[in-house]
Design a protein that fits this description.
Layout: H1 9-20, H2 26-37, H3 41-52, H4 57-61, E1 63-66, E2 69-72, H5 85-94, E3 100-104, H6 110-119, E4 123-128, H7 131-141, E5 146-149, E6 164-169, H8 176-179, H9 184-187, H10 203-212, E7 216-226, H11 231-239, E8 244-250, E9 255-261
Parallel strand pairs: 3-4, 3-6, 4-5, 6-7
Antiparallel strand pairs: 1-2, 7-9, 8-9
Helix pairs in contact: 1-2, 2-3, 5-6, 10-11
The protein binds S-adenosylmethionine.
S-adenosylmethionine binds at residues 78, 80, 84, 105-108, 110-111, 128-130, 133, 151-152, 170-172, 193-194, 204.
Length: 264
């Protein structure tokens, strides 16, 4: 931040309004909104009104921070969460440059971007069923991969069948009844298809466990985010399809994932 801005009345006033509206990190939000306003008072007023109206900060700014990068997000598309860093770290540890990778249920493509940044060039496909997610993922990934629309594996190019080194996934895993208890910023602003994982939250995990073997190469792995409570059940779904499984936890990002590998 510019030193002159620290105690600037506009910043302090904006932070006070944001705090009164419930913002926990009001000064940080004020700085981000002032930056986004870029000296244009009309633009700043519109951004502040949206934020005070309860819209998630990331939609107002147009980006979310993830794994050290700015990921463009648009209203309705799932906002990448820090905890998904556990998927990135586990997938990156299994990858080499030019490997074949799928970011399944890619949302804005945050996992794909983070893997490209960590590993380097990859033969990458990202896919999602939500056209809004596909549009913004295509922007984020650019010419570093291809982005396709469709239901799980049905969207993947045939040339990927049986050849994928790693499938990285953050699919919806919130049990249907629990969606109503999520924070309003998620429940009221993110598309339901990004959240609802069915009665026990693991409908998508079971479908992915049933379908992944056809797309991975022998010895290939799938890394999938899950909650700590659901991790054993998710791992069991993969074990039922002949995957060797382990559960990985990263307390630093408060994230959990299952790593499921095919025999070589
Ligand atoms: C929890 S969000 C995660 C998005 C992204 N992977 C991330 O971590 O930021 C789940 C995503 O799965 C997508 N999705 C839900 N059902 C799907 C399906 N049957 N096939 C493909 N994508 C699906 C949603 O549209 C949403 O973008």
């Amino acid at each position: 931040m510019h030193p002159a801005r620290q105690d600037h009345p506009a910043r302090l006033g904006l932070a006070a309004r944001l705090r009164a509206a419930g913002s926990v990190f009001a000064e940080d939000e004020a700085d981000l909104l002032l930056d986004a306003g870029d000296g244009d008072a009309v633009r700043l007023r519109s951004l502040v009104q949206r934020r005070l109206g309860g819209e998630p900060l990331e939609y107002v700014l147009g980006w979310a921070a993830f794994d050290g990068h700015r990921i463009r997000v648009t209203p309705g598309v799932f906002v990448p969460r820090a905890r998904t860093g556990v998927v990135v770290a586990q997938a990156a540890a299994l990858l080499h440059r030019y490997d074949r990778v799928v970011d399944l249920c890619c949302g804005a493509g945050a996992i794909a971007v983070a893997l490209l940044e960590r590993v380097g060039a990859l033969d990458l496909v990202a896919s999602d069923v939500d056209p809004d997610a596909v549009d913004v993922a295509a922007e984020n990934i650019g010419d570093r991969g291809i982005v396709v629309a469709g239901d799980l594996f049905a969207a993947l190019p045939a040339r990927f069948r049986g050849t994928v080194d790693v499938i990285a996934v953050n699919a919806p895993y919130v049990p249907t009844d629990a969606v109503a208890t999520m924070p309003t910023e998620a429940r009221d602003h993110e598309h339901r298809v990004a959240l609802d994982g069915g009665p026990d939250g693991l409908d998508l995990h079971r479908r992915i466990a049933a379908g992944a073997g056809e797309w991975l190469r022998p010895g290939g792995s799938l890394v999938i985010e899950v909650s700590e409570l659901q991790a054993d059940a998710s791992a069991a779904a993969f074990a039922a399809h002949d995957f060797a499984t382990r559960i990985e936890r990263d307390d630093a990002v408060d994230g959990t994932c299952v790593v499921a590998s095919l025999p070589a």
